[in-house]
Each structure stands twice: as C-alpha cells, then as structure tokens.
Amino acid sequence: MSNDPKHPSLPVGGRKIATPGGEFFLIDRGQGQPVLFVHGFPLDHSMWNAQLDALSPDYRVLAPDLRGFGRSDVTPGTVSMATMADDLAAMLDALQITEPVVLCGLSMGGYVAFQFWRKHAARLRALVLCDTRAVADTPEAAAGRLATAERAVSEGSAVVGEAMLPKLFAADTFKNNPTLIDQMRQVMATSPPQGVAAALRGMAERPNVQADLPQIALPTLVIVGEHDAISSPDEMRAIADGIPKAEFQIIAGAGHMSPCEAPIEFNGALEDFLSRRLPI
Ligand code: MLT
C-alpha cells in the first residue's frame, strides 16, 4: 500500500502530483540515479512492476501513468507524443528532479522518448528504447487508428485491448503465462476510453524521427523481444544502427511486451547497460 497518507490505497511508492498541465499518478521509489519508465499503449505504469522491484535498491525509479491512462488526468481530443513528453518534464519539475534522467520507454513510450529527446535533451543521461518504432504511421495505419479511437469512445476500451492482445505477446507467453495475459487484459479494459482515443489520435499524427537518430548523442540501449510482431528485431536493429552510441539487445523468446514476458533477461540487459555505461 501507498506511503502517501492522502491516498492510502495506492500501490507502494504511488503518489499523485500536480503540474500546471494536470494531475498525474506515478510510482516514485528508491534513491540514486533517476530512471523514468514510460509505458506502452493502452497500458499504465504497472507494466514495469518487475523493473521497479529489480532496480529500486540501486536507482530512483519513476513510473508515471501517462495523460489519459491509469489514475492520471484524462484530456479528451488528441494528445500528441510531444504533449506527453512535456508532461514528463513537468512531472520532473514538480518532483524537483533537475539531474539528467535515464528514460526507458516501450513502444508508445518510445515515441514519447523520442519527443522528450527533441524537446528536453538536456534532461537526459541515457535512453532505453524498447520494442518501439522510429517511422510514422502509414496513411492507412493512421486512418485505422482514427477509426479505432471512435470505437474506443463508443464501445469502450476493452474492444481496443482485445484487438491489441494477439500482437502483444509471443506464442509461448500465451501458453505459459496466462496470469500475465489476464493482468494486461484487465489493465487495457479499464483504461479510460477518452484517454485511449486521445492517444490513438496522437500516435496517428506522430512524426517520423529516423532523420533524428544520428543526432542522438546519448548512451542508448535498443532492446526488443525476439518475436515482437509490432516492432520487429530488424526494424529495431536499424534504429540502433542509426544512433551513434547505441547498443542492441534481443530478448530471446519474448514478444512486444519483452519487459513483462522475460523480466529476468530484460532486467539483466538493462542493469548491465546501466552499470557499464552509467557507473554509479
Ligand atoms: C504500444 O505497445 O504502445 C503500441 O503497440 C504502439 C502502437 O500502437 O504503435
């Protein structure tokens, strides 16, 4: 349970923080170099639970619910990836964190990480890009997202979650870890429909950042599940090849949700990267 007396039912380290742009929920645990974990779509901070547990003895781990997700404020309409990046900067301000952070984003969280780099590069010490893409949506994919946004509002978030589910996990995860699948299904079904729709519209208009990759002068870990059906290992390898100081890691046996599907292997790769590239 929470250590925030005003919100006793929140998870450990959970707190709400007010920023000029709205109120956000985040997990804030541990001490030391801040590592900011940014979740994928249509999920919330809890997809990082295994990373928060593993890293919080040595790092200050921060895992917000992005605008429109989990317990954070919802803004109907369109929420761009750049707005989400600005929200993260505002959260760091509210927490009075001025030192550069490690930003670890998965999929939509990676789109937000690219925008954070574009707008707030001085606040970054390193990047971890997980199961994400540098390209923009094709016109067909963008049109599909806009239609899905309408469905989320009219039929609810569960419809979106059920459509996503088959693409999120490796076949072995469906077979061997039904508890994880159920947890994710539950999170997706309870995501606020207006938040889901606003993020879909924001993803549909996100820019192609491929031309930015050579300018990213940060230690960067590019990490992907072997069977990722949304952002393939080949596509992720091309991202790593484009970033001068990047290294590339494939998580064997995992799909798109590599941090949840193979937490031991994922955490090993992450901790190894942090200890080598950012010695404490
Ligand atoms: C995610 O996991 O965040 C989504 O797959 C992103 C997307 O739909 O492009």
Q: What's the CATH topology label?
A: Rossmann fold
Number of strands: 8
Distance between the termini: 29 Å
Question: What does the main sheet amount to?
Answer: 8 strands, mixed
Number of H/I helices: 11
Task: List segments where confidence is low: pLDDT < 50 over at least 5 consecutive residues.
Answer: none
CATH class: Alpha Beta
SSE layout:
Layout: E1 14-19, E2 22-29, E3 34-38, H1 49-55, E4 60-64, H2 81-94, E5 101-106, H3 108-120, E6 124-130, H4 139-155, H5 157-168, H6 171-176, H7 178-189, H8 193-204, E7 220-225, H9 233-242, E8 246-251, H10 258-261, H11 263-277
Parallel strand pairs: 3-4, 3-5, 5-6, 6-7, 7-8
Antiparallel strand pairs: 1-2, 2-4
This protein binds D-malate.
Output the keywords.
280 residues; alpha/beta; Rossmann fold; eight-stranded mixed β-sheet; 11 helices; 8 strands; globular; binds D-malate
Describe, in plain words, how this protein is organized in 3D.
The protein has 280 residues and is of the alpha/beta class. 44% of the residues lie in helices and 18% in strands. The chain contains eleven helices and eight strands. Strands 1-2-4-3-5-6-7-8 form an eight-stranded mixed β-sheet, with helices on both faces. Helix 5 runs antiparallel to helix 7. The longest helix is centred in the middle third of the chain and has 17 residues, at 139-155. The radius of gyration is 17 Å and the shape is globular. The mean pLDDT is 96. The structure holds D-malate. D-malate binds at residues 40-41, 107-108, 203, 230, 256.
